[in-house]
Specification:
nine-stranded mixed sheet; four-stranded antiparallel sheet; mainly beta; 2 helices; Immunoglobulin-like; 16 strands
């Protein structure tokens, strides 16, 4: 399934080539060095279909285009639930940044990073509905369980490869809920009830959903490495 996700950044690059008059071609790509992006997700209201996310992206001053994931592993189609986004805001150094949605690509957002800024703050929430259609986010939660899809909760810079971008994820769940995921968990938390995961590529993050619930149980099977 991995190659399907890798097509997404390429699609953004092709759009830039074909729409040379749009601001997308002038976008400043996110730095892909040692500083990972961070995504902090508050899923404590997931049973109501509400998840809130706070992204911190390393950036450079200048024009920037961010994309919402469109091509997803296993979907085989451009089905990212972009219509589920609500309350999208950008800021840097505590100052709000004006943004514009692309007139042709609904998954692209244009803004200008101000001088002196090296980090961009992005906040939005995803409002999921049952029987979702037309790009809305599907409800994958009940009062007892939730499936967290990272692709619904991130943005990434146009023109970048998902394998080259690193994201450090943190997740808050309802009280006394437990979870399972392929993401490597950080050795220690921050004591605020959230779970911190080690930085991974955006490809790996997207391909590592979290299954959580109040009746969750883990059964150790042993082996080397442990299963």
């Amino acid at each position: 399934m991995m190659p399907i996700f890798r097509h997404r950044p390429l699609a953004g690059a092709l759009l830039c080539t074909s729409l040379v008059a749009t601001p997308m071609c002038a976008a400043t790509a996110q730095a892909t060095g040692t500083v990972p992006a961070s995504v902090e997700v508050d899923a404590r209201e997931a049973p109501r279909g509400i998840q809130r996310t706070h992204l911190q992206l390393p950036v450079k001053p200048g024009k920037l285009t961010l994309l919402y994931p469109k091509w997803l592993p296993g979907d085989h189609s451009p089905g990212g639930p972009v219509a589920g986004i609500s309350g999208l805001k950008f800021s840097a150094n505590g100052q709000a940044i004006v943004w514009q949605r692309d007139l042709d690509n609904m998954y692209a957002f244009h803004l200008t990073v101000p001088a002196g800024a090296s980090s961009l703050d992005v906040v939005f929430e995803v409002d999921a509905v049952q029987g979702a259609t037309d790009g809305n986010a599907p409800r994958t939660s009940t009062e007892s369980l939730a499936l967290i899809h990272w692709n619904e909760l991130v943005l990434y810079p146009a023109g970048s490869k998902s394998d080259d971008l690193r994201y450090s994820a943190k997740l808050r769940l309802p009280a006394r809920w437990r979870f399972g995921t392929a993401l490597p968990q950080a050795a220690s938390g921050d004591g605020d009830g959230g779970t911190q995961f080690d930085p991974v590529s955006l490809t790996t993050l997207i391909d590592s959903p979290v299954l959580a619930g109040k009746h969750f149980k883990t059964v150790e099977l042993g082996g080397a490495p442990a299963v």
